[in-house]
Amino acid sequence: MAKTTVKIAKKNVFYAQSGGVTAVINASACGVIETARKNKDKIGKVYAGRNGIIGALSEELIDTGKEPARAIAALRHTPSGAFGSCRYKLKGLAENRAEYERLIEVFEAHNIGYFFYNGGGDSADTCLKISQLSKTLGYPIQAIHIPKTVDNDLPITDNCPGFGSVAKYVAVSIREAAFDVASMAKTSTKIFVLEVMGRHAGWIAAAGGLAAENEGDAPQIILFPEVVFNERKFLARVKESVNKYGCCAIVVSEGVRDSKGRFLAESGTRDAFGHVQLGGVALVVAQMIQEKLGYKHHWAVADYLQRAARHIASKTDVEQAYAVGKAAVEMALAGKNAVMPAIKRTSNKPYRWKIVEARLAKVANREKMMPKNYISKDGFHITQRCRGYLQPLIQGEDYPPFKNGLPQYVTLKNVAVKKKLKKSFKV
Amino acid sequence: MAKTTVKIAKKNVFYAQSGGVTAVINASACGVIETARKNKDKIGKVYAGRNGIIGALSEELIDTGKEPARAIAALRHTPSGAFGSCRYKLKGLAENRAEYERLIEVFEAHNIGYFFYNGGGDSADTCLKISQLSKTLGYPIQAIHIPKTVDNDLPITDNCPGFGSVAKYVAVSIREAAFDVASMAKTSTKIFVLEVMGRHAGWIAAAGGLAAENEGDAPQIILFPEVVFNERKFLARVKESVNKYGCCAIVVSEGVRDSKGRFLAESGTRDAFGHVQLGGVALVVAQMIQEKLGYKHHWAVADYLQRAARHIASKTDVEQAYAVGKAAVEMALAGKNAVMPAIKRTSNKPYRWKIVEARLAKVANREKMMPKNYISKDGFHITQRCRGYLQPLIQGEDYPPFKNGLPQYVTLKNVAVKKKLKKSFKV
């Protein structure tokens, strides 16, 4: 039986970003690269995949060693994926053996001994498969998964780097917009609807609830994907809010569904030609209110703005994102394989956390849903328990440097590593 | 002939906020109230209209004297209209004499000698009518208009308080989202569309152009209301951007129209001023690209978020908003009537400005459009001249205080002034 760990030698690192990017995934990259640079006696070069795992398959590697320390440091405050990301899931070994053989060819050619994959659930699965290459195909490699997802749906870890900053953006935005609509409500707009991301999990929508600190504060209503949408109850609640507070601010998750399991966004309106108008769920909800209750509305769709908003990132999130990157290298140096640095909450008030080691087999392909007791009984808001969990994650501001009124984000040179293989590979 | 100015006596102030609110209109209110408080020997109480001019008509006045200095100071960093705004336009004297007579009744009952109206073009018109009350109905009052509008379409003044902060929000947001889409473009989203406000004027859309500092920088395309939308040319430009840079980030103004003068997206509803309520053009543009070019897209509608985003306000804008509020009181003390404090740019590099006096008759009902030479010849971007104008307006950050990860905005007590009139008035 092949060994699952290998003796630490001066091997190179392959690092890649995967899936939807975030405001802080580059902070994790920064943690990886800076920590590797501090351990030059034990670690060789840090190569990054151009556009994620595709960069490995196509042998398009980036030599991060060509970047000055200042550029690498600037990754800490630069949103998006500096090396390019991809949406590409490796199939199982049995289904696509050629892909794994190709990876080994590339890794071997470039003396890769460490594989760091920075992503969400799908990426954890990919990383797990790579971690088994020593066992399955005899190529010695240590694969470590670095958690990242705004959806906050990875198990074991207290939260997922990327989420805290989206949470902060959403809470800040709904608070600001709700102040606006409250000013306008007397003669004009009474309803404001903000659509947020999160897929099947209501974590991001729940974060909007943090803005409501006192009775009557906005948002008055949150629509979760976990709660079946009930038009009658919803409209009654909107009316109640308008009667009580003069207005109503609503956070709606993109993943909200009706009792038949259809996305509300799909049930959209039709244009003059009878075509279904595909659009945001915010629009659907706002129009429903207009039609049924006659209130004037405004709606916003934050989309990429929410996950790219580095200017209002959570300091806690930035620190944790850096820490998991740093820990990944330290785990590699400690000879670990098939693990993920996870965040463990050691105290709630004051919030304290540390990095622990999670076994990748327990992370991959498991979605962490919001606990039921995080949603209030009526289904329209968060509970105190949820607030206690979320509150620390948006703590602190970590403003990027500004010049000429604009945040200064780094664009790396991304110098290509010379290809060593003759064969190309069709991805 | 009645005098158009009155002798300065210890009269009270009526201050009201009008039209769409902004991230900094409360900074103007702060300037008014703090300056009045410094001149207690000459100025009586500062009353604010609850929900704008409606508060005057319905005798719903707020006594700002009941607010501690700390709360008033906090207005400087609080977005929205602290006293409520309204969309309500006074008709001409001949058309609705009863309204003017009612205003005089209320003003007389509360010893109002100064009328400060904080708004855009429509409000300037209202303010002008009030300024003529001494002449037309024999009631001595000094009316001073305080400029505010995110649409930046008031004449004479270098820019309109409120605009600079929206400009900064839009430039920051498109830069951040464009970094995101560039990371995703290889296997996923290639197009990002951000819809912004601005009605018939492209000022806000133009501000997005500030993010593009170097060749190829996002946004690659801006769609202005001043440029007739040409689908063929637009799609060709999108394709060119994707071929050249791998992706395309687009800022689209809500007011973009086709060759027949129709809004690309028209929701059909109208506000109290008869303006069409716009929104949803991002979706139209994104779907057009998907259908015709097949690129995967994401789109965002910033809506109220852009004008409420006090967390990323322009320091220059905040300072100017405060300054026009302060100057309004100073002009009142100098016996002025029918004027507006305007911002005058005295130097471009470095940016220097001062407050000057503009005659209200020259402000009301005139829209300042973008100069033609602010839009590039191809119609898809801004010129260097435009950049030179806009650049100073987004300078500097002025972060609000944060607590528990959230900006701390003030909600005033808004204590009602006891009504003195027996009659109510139907607005």
Keywords:
four-stranded parallel sheet, 427 residues, homodimer, 2 domains, alpha/beta, Rossmann fold, five-stranded mixed sheet
Write down the secondary-structure element order of chain A.
EHEHEHHEHHEHEHEHEHEHHEEHEE
Helix content of chain A: 25-40%
How far is it from the N-terminal to the C-terminal residue of chain A, by CA?
A: 31 Å
The total beta strand count of chain A reads 13
Number of helices of chain A: 13
Quote the beta fraction of chain A. 15-25%
- The CATH topology of the largest domain in chain A: Rossmann fold
Q: How many domain modules of chain A?
A: 2
What would the average pLDDT of chain A be, to the nearest integer? 93
CATH architecture of the largest domain in chain A: 3-Layer(aba) Sandwich
* Rg of chain A, nearest Å: 23 Å
CATH class of the largest domain in chain A: Alpha Beta
Instruction: Identify the strand order in the major beta sheet of chain A.
Output: 3-2-1-4-5
Structure, explained:
- The structure is a homodimer of 427-residue chains.
- With 427 residues, chain A is an alpha/beta fold.
- The first copy, chain A, folds into 2 domains: 207 residues, 3-Layer(aba) Sandwich (Rossmann fold), CATH 3.40.50.450; 146 residues, Phosphofructokinase domain (Rossmann fold).
- Helices cover 33% and strands 16% of the residues of chain A.
- Chain A has 13 helices and 13 strands.
- A 5-stranded mixed sheet of chain A has the order 3-2-1-4-5, sandwiched between helices. In chain A, strands 7-8-6-9 form a 4-stranded parallel sheet.
- In chain A, helix 1 crosses helix 12.
- The radius of gyration of chain A is 23 Å and the shape is elongated.
